[in-house]
Amino acid sequence: MAFSLSNLALRAIPGAFILNSGYGKLNLDEQTAGQLQSMAANAFPAVKDLDAETFGKALAYSEFVVGGALVIPVVPSRVAGLALGAFAGGLLTMYFKTDEMTEEDGIRPSQAGTAVAKDSWIAAITLALILQSKGKKKNKKK
């Protein structure tokens, strides 16, 4: 499977970043895991049912899966893009459902929401990976 330079950039850089983020969450203390869980519960109320340590581990492992899908070349770009899309969807859902993260208009980030709003670039990379792989299939048919 040949990778173009653009495909490599779309996958390796965010993949390494997400893997590192997951690695950093492997040994979260209970308080930090609880804070992350509380933010996630705004978007996904079911996470309230987990204990903080379990939530922290699940978050770390999910980031390993997404980051791994991006950096492992045998994973098709479309599949990696779909995994990244699920991840981006979760982040953006949390952003829009947490009042403190947006200004009164519900869109622009507040000071507290800037860090999560910056993750909107993940959604753009998702689209690029999915659309890029669709274009390659069309070209092969011709």
Provide an overview of this structure.
The protein has six helices and no strands. The chain is mostly helical and 142 residues long. The relative contact order is 0.14.
For the record, give the distance between the C-alpha atoms at the N and C termini, rounded to a whole number: 19 Å
- The helix tally amounts to 6
Q: Can you count the beta strands?
A: 0
Broad structural category? mainly alpha
Helix and strand string, N-terminal first?
A: HHHHHH
Largest sheet: none
Tell me roughly what share of residues is in helical segments: over 70%
Short description:
The protein has 142 residues and is an all-alpha fold. The protein has six helices and no strands.
Give the secondary structure arrangement, pairings included:
Blueprint: H1 5-25, H2 30-43, H3 52-71, H4 77-97, H5 114-117, H6 121-141
Helix pairs in contact: 1-3, 1-6, 2-3, 2-4, 3-4, 4-6
Features:
142 residues; mainly alpha
